[in-house]
Amino acid sequence: MTTPTESHDMPGAVDADAATAIAETRAWVERVVIGLNLCPFAKAPQVKGQVRYVASRAVDAAELLTDLVAELHRLAEAPAELIETTLLVHPHALNDFDDYNDFLDVADAALAELELEGVLQVASFHPEYRFADSEPDDLANATNRSPYPTLHLLREDSIDRAVAAFPEAEAIFEANIETMEELGAEGLARLQQQCRDDAASGKGG
């Protein structure tokens, strides 16, 4: 029997695909997000097993929206000590970043429709992530580049606590850019390969 914080796939998903997507995403969180300290607040819920990793079988925006709504309900109804945050990985849908970026408006509309604005928030990660006005090969984009397209569901209360603990959020962003520039394209490629290796060996699952 699974628990809400265990890796699992949506009903009907291909087990091997789901397992790989979740394992690589977990390895990315460990090695990149936490390992490079891109988010000072990520380690605690990861260590406590409060991060829910979900692989969606969706192949288009409509199917992904159905899964997103289900996960928003689940996070809103679960106690924070059980599920602090959710990573909804969707390896077969919205692989084009422009399509993914457009879907974020749909995600925000779903939050409003569910009356969860101010309660939950959806953040974005994608293998081709680009900040506005940035070049595709700009290393700053790597701070938000996950192995697979991913929707990050967060609690607003958690964000508020994080901001109170570290009010200069801009300093985190600037530090992350410096980290990526010091790492360089080759160093980043090595880290990404290590994440794939972890997933293949079972360390990321």
Number of helices: 6
- The arrangement of helices and strands along the chain is EHHEHEHEEHH
Supply the helix-strand structural class. Answer: alpha/beta
| Poorly predicted residue ranges | 1-14
Please report the distance between the alpha carbons of the first and last residues: 16 Å
Mean of pLDDT: 91
Total number of distinct structural domains: 1
Binned strand content = 5-15%
Q: Order the strands across the largest sheet as they lie in space.
A: 1-2-3-5-4
The percent range for helix content is: 40-55%
Give me the count of strands.
5
Shape: globular
The oligomeric state is single chain
Please describe the biggest sheet, giving its number of strands, its sense, and whether it closes into a barrel: 5 strands, mixed
